[in-house]
Amino acid sequence: MKTSYSRDQSDTSQGLPIIYPPQEDTFDELVSSEGSVRPHWQGLLNTFSGLGQAARRQAHETAARMLHDDGMTYLARQENQQPARPWQLDLFPLLISQTEWQQLEEGLIQRARLLNHILNDLYGPQQLIKNGILPPAVVHGNPQFLRPCHGIPVQGGTYLHFLAVDLARSPDGQWWILRDRTEAPTGAGFALENRMIVSRALPNVFTQTPVQHLSAFFQTFSEHFLQFAQRDDPLAVVLSPGPQNTTYFEHAYLARYLGYPVVEGSDLTMRDSRLFLKTVEGLKPVDLVLRRIYSDLCDPLELSTDSYAGVPGLMQAIRAGHVTMANALGSGLVDSEVLLSFLPGVCQYFFGEGLKIPSVATWWCGQPKERALVLERLDQLMIRRVLSTARTATPSRLSSFGPDLSQQSRDMLRQAITRRGHEFVGREIVSPSTAPFWSNQEELKPVPMTLRMYITASPHGYTVMPGGLTRVSVQSDPRGHWHEPGDFSKDTWMLWEGHENVPNIVPHAPQALHLRRGGQDLPSRTADNFFWFGRYLERAEGAIRVLRSLVERLSGASELGADPDTLHRLVSLLVVQEHLSQRRARRVLVGGAQAVERELRTILFDPDSPDGLAKILINVRLTADRVRERLSIDTWKILMELTNIPQEWRRTKGHSIDDTIRLLSRMIQHLAALNGMVMENMTRSYAWRFLEMGRRLERVRHLSKLVRHLTTRGTPEATGALNLLLELADSYITYRTRYKSEANLAAVLDLLLADETNPRSVIFQLVTFETHLEILPHDRSQATLTPAQQTTTRLCTDLRLADMVRLSDLNPKSGIRSHLERLIRQLEQGVKKLSDEVMHMYFSHSMPKRV
After folding, report:
1. Per residue in 41-67, is it b (16+ CB within 10 Å) or e — as a string?
2. pLDDT tens across 742-752, in order?
């Protein structure tokens, strides 16, 4: 490993070559201006260097595997859009000394108190405006000042429950605050996951370094937030825009960590000035909302009328004091950079002291003197349009860097500032400090960095997270927006040399804990997603079994025959199962085995194929993404491996038919493992029952199509269709063990349709479905069965009364087994009816109909 940190190129450290040239006018986190390693870094550098190249490589691989297994992404995965961007993590952490941490902590607590004071004043008496501390235009001209929120009391005066601050160092080592994040601050979940990964990938390095832990910070937030509820058993939710949001991974991750359900606006409703969550058991009152959406999108009645993310009438519940928001609506007002230039005066006004951590120099162009200064230094400053209502504009469109502008662009910007100066601020361009980045070439090199730190309200004021999210701009512009391509993140270690390696958080008095079981507060949208998660999993298994049988016959590996008729049936089955279009099927059948092999590759691995296996696996992944906060880590890892198998295949070349068989068998093994996790690890809550119901219903659908296609015409005993059917239904061994003879149609139909001891039979699925229906909430005072129960009972009765010998009879005139055809048609219609009835009873208000 090369350590590239020294001014003296001839020096060595720990036997490693030092090759780094000096950088002028930049503060470096690791190396002082004299060229020596800063004292608080020396221990980490020695420990890290002493690992050896093999151990460091293994740590790198461990971290990469954990990031992959956890599905840690920044851009949400969306159908027919750009794929999720994997989160990039540099294992070498940023270190902050204990002395510097204490200074940062003190300054950030002051900052949080100050911003909270400002919000209390501006949404209350507005003394800052009356006394001339703030110009009225800074407040009333700011689109983030929500007039409907003015005068609404906030419990405990706490507007800010959770906030973040972006910091950078100037060349002299001074920390400067670049931006306050008070609206819906992001990144804390990513910082927590970074810590989890680094501590596991580098366990010895982590334990040998006196690092403060993060868990107490999140515990403090949750325990204090729950104190704002007016009931002993409050319901807190995470309000998210949904899986299409860029930081949905964090929403789900924090929700799982805190134990809050993730909901969207359509999952909530208002009744009598109270907020309720729509669950499968009915409406449940919501007491606390950790919102991840902008304030003005929360209520389309009183705030932004074009919002689809909020809850109509939510302001009524807030006025009545029935719900507490974190952060309070309108908190984005102090998020605006227009306030930065006024904060020193506001701090003196409230606290009688200056800012302990200054803001980067900023000038609001709504003031003549400041506007003139900005225009004079236009080629040296960053210009930001801060009072624009265009939220959809990208950060790059709202920011202009004077040194990068052409003369024409600079003149146009000058004219805009002259005409609408109140919309702009000018800001010093910060040259951030550099931090060590561990590259793949086994060397540390300096790259620009900025740091985001987090603060939470606590019973004793505010508490700072002893860590943070460090951004290093490896291949991106450090002046740009966070999380640009080319950005890496780092874990941030706040050192603590004392014996107790914990933050200064006062422990809470122990509280009585209400013991509970069940977990029945399942949002209807989540129930819907679990139902379809089960259906897509079963659909994937059915498709894979058909494809594997086809490939085995192409290779001659199957013991059940590889005749042209069987290939024809399998291709036709792919059409029936909607994995192959009629046009492509005709082309395949004309072209023979080679054409089948070509089409198979498309069906298996082409993500753009509308009827291929990749499409089904995408649906599995998309639906799993929507419920990932309720899935165990091991279950999620199996899902990730399953859905990524086609991608791994496409990245390699030269596959044989045998390779294809092994891949399909591997996918079936993953599905079996996933089913095992579901059966053995999931509590028997409503979530598990809806997932099971989806699987059972889809299995009936799949098996009914197999029976119809392979047995309702001709002589399936003579053609080998019955053996194929038993294979696809995973019942071949069961049949041979029971009958010890060649396949007989009546016996096969009995085994696959009406045998309640066969877990693969149709009636087994329907009986299991019926059991779940009985346990799910419904009006038990009614004397009649629910529509879904009636449908299930009718189908089970038809199967129990069915005469298998009669079903096997072939009509000599039509050449069709009409009784069997009629029964299968009833089953297929029953599946559709059951799906609609379950949706109507439990999901109808949550999501559009799916197929």
Report:
1. beebbebbbebeeeebeebbebbeebb
2. 889 999 999 99
Residues 325-342 have a mean pLDDT of 93
The answer to whether residues 359 and 340 touch, using CB atoms and an 8 Å cutoff, is: yes
> For residue 1, what are the CA distances in angstroms to 51, 53, 331, 436, 540?
10, 7, 47, 13, 46
* Total number of residues shown for the chain: 851
User: What single string gives the DSSP state of each residue in 475-526?
Assistant: SS-TTS-TT-TTEEEEEEEEB--SSS-S-S-PPPPP------------BHHH
**How many C-beta atoms lie closer than 10 Å to residue 583's C-beta?**
8
Structure tokens at 458: 């606590």
Q: Is the peptide bond before 619 cis (omega within 30 degrees of 0)?
A: no
Q: How far is CA 758 from CA 305, 488, 738, 763, 806, in A?
A: 55, 52, 12, 9, 21
Closest of 278, 143, 190 to residue 841, by C-alpha: 278
| Cα separations in angstroms, 654 against 433, 506, 603, 650, 658 | 48, 62, 17, 10, 11
Sort residue 179 into left (φ over 0), alpha (ψ -120 to 50) or beta: beta
pLDDT band at 302 (very low <50, low <70, confident <90, very high): very high
Residue 761: what residue type? S
Residue with tokens 């366990």: 203
Q: Assess whether pLDDT exceeds 90 at residue 559.
A: no
> How many angstroms separate the CA atoms of 527 and 635, rounded?
18
Separation CA 379–CA 457 (nearest Å): 41
What φ, ψ does residue 89 adopt, rounded to 5°?
-125, 130
Dist. CA 412–CA 405, nearest whole Å: 10
Residue-wise pLDDT for 104-124, tens only, equals: 999 999 999 999 999 999 999
Q: Which of these ranges, 235-239, 450-454, 511-515, 847-851, has the smallest mean pLDDT?
A: 847-851
| Residue 424 β-bridge partners | 385
Query: Which residue is associated with the tokens 């014996």?
Result: 499
The residues, ordered by sequence, that sit 6+ positions from 370 with a Cβ below 8 Å of its Cβ are 341, 363, 364, 426
Task: Determine the pLDDT at residue 778.
Answer: 83
User: What are the C-alpha distances in Å from 190 to residues 91, 257, 303, 440, 477?
Assistant: 14, 12, 30, 22, 21
**Tokens linked to 587:** 């082309």
Q: Are 235 and 263 in contact (CB under 8 A)?
A: no
Angle at 182 between CA 177 and CA 187, to 5 degrees: 80
Check: CB of residue 332 under 8 Å from CB of residue 325. no
Among 54, 31, 53, 52, which residue's Cα sits nearest to residue 41?
31
Specify the DSSP element, H or E, that contains 601.
helix 593-605
pLDDT at position 814 over 90 = no
pLDDT at residue 348 is higher than 60: yes
How far, in Å, CA of 587 to CA of 579, rounded?
15
The Cβ of residue 312 has, within 10 Å, a number of other Cβ atoms equal to: 16
> What would the DSSP string read from start to end of 287-339?
-EEEE-S-GGGS-TTTS-TT-SSS-TTHHHHHHTT--EEESPTTGGGGGSGGG
- For strands 236-239 and 262-263, give the pairing: parallel
Residues 358-379 have pLDDT tens digits of 999 999 999 999 999 999 999 8
User: Which residues, 6+ apart, have CB-to-CB distance to 388 below 8 Å?
Assistant: 143, 398, 423
Question: What is the mean predicted confidence (pLDDT) over 67-96?
Answer: 71
DSSP states along 90-149: EEEEEEE-HHHHHHHHHHHHHHHHHHHHHHHHHTTT-HHHHTTSS-HHHHHT-TT--GGG
| Single-letter amino acid, residue 199 | S
Strands (E), 158-217: 162-169, 175-181
Alpha-carbon distance of 437 to 426, in angstroms, equals 31
Distance of CA 588 to the CA centre of its chain: 40
